[in-house]
Amino acid sequence: MSETPKDQEQKEQEQLKETVDEAEALPEADGVSVIDGKKIAREFYDWVEIFVLTIAAILLVFTFLVRIAYVDGPSMNNTLHDKETLAVSNFLYTPKQGDIVVFQSPDSDIPGGIVKRVIATEGQTVDIDFSTWTVTVDGVALDEPYVNYENGLPMRHFDVTFPVTVPENCVFVMGDNRNHSTDSRDSSIGFLDTRFIFGRVLLRITPLSKFGGVD
Description:
Order of helices and strands: HHEEEEEEEEEEE
CATH class of the domain at 68-209: Mainly Beta
């Protein structure tokens, strides 16, 4: 017996229902998930919060703990070179012999400060044999592998007469490139008041090929 239009319509509805039921029963394919708008918004907010907190932390560090300085000139060759970027900190800092420091001389207009090495601190006595490049502090000759010696030439002598004793709250500084550095050997700088020290050089930032600490 042939199907009536009503029977055919009922059959089509039953087939459609079976198809829907089968689709709902299918397991979720691997790697495919339903997009949850609230979850995405929540994750986005978390990332934004982390980013903002990170930037805030960096700003706090560079405002209160670290500052940026730039090497100006050849006076610290071959330890540091012209135009290099440095990270400097004075947090809980007391100058020590051998530290590389950045300071602002009262008579200097160099915007990024001056970079030199601390040779002696308050109460210590400095003497220099310019012919042999020998620096002594409290009678002990310093081992200075960082100095850029110029063979056959004496160390440059300025107008300060040696030996000298470093006054209270001051340090005696020199550049590693001794014959191309104006420093505490010159009365225009002389003993450096520690109040003018921005801080100790923590690391070299640029060039990136030399990123890291400095000695």
